[in-house]
Predict the 3D structure of the following.
Amino acid sequence: MTQPSPAERLLQNLGVTEPHDIDLEAIAFAQGAFVKYGRLDGCEARIVGSGEHAIITIDDRKPRTRQRFSTAHELGHWKYHRGRHLACRPDEIGDSRNSFDPEPVADRYAADLLLPQYLFIPRAKKLRVCSFETVDFLSREFETSVPATAMRLVEYGPEPAMLVCHGQSGRKWFRRPREIPERWFPREDLDAQSPATNVLYGSNRRSQRASVGAEAWFDRREANRFEIEEQSYKISDQEILTLLIFSQSEMLED
Ligand SMILES: [Zn+2]
């Protein structure tokens, strides 16, 4: 576990010891911000502040998990970008590790506030398995979306794994934690033999976690020597997420 981030320190200072204690309206209120819900056009969330007080407005048509992420994102702006007017489309799967732009900074703050390491890691370790069953369980406990929770699971989870998103026209993005060497770069297209293909094009909402030859996912000669495990989950009609679990430790050597 790394040092607590500012969002995690805030939760600890407020005495949050369980996921269901992450009451965003109360946390916002403690920071001088009032959260209201209503119609927004052209953005999903916004914050208007003056002095020590702010009003956060969240689009009331979005799902609850999305509203929570947006509220946490605006609290990130309230901490770091006070005095600026920002109309937001919070990105739950944005890669925010090395950015100084206001939007990814607020996204990172939101992920830390909703899925803080000190509550997430012990629960993920206890579940032991990197799978969408684990993601479902944790997303219910933390009231977070499947993509946001799956991102956290590959970042801090119990097994070395990467997360890949595919649409009908190929790979859209992937997240690889530091423990997985950069030479494991996922292929653009799905392999016809991979169960992921059935999930993207078939009626199955998810596949079972199963072993496949690593060459189904990686275009490298050495991939022929290894097996990995994969499991896919349909997040919309057009998109799937796949967890790739690196169960052979030799693949993690540099
Ligand atoms: Zn924003």
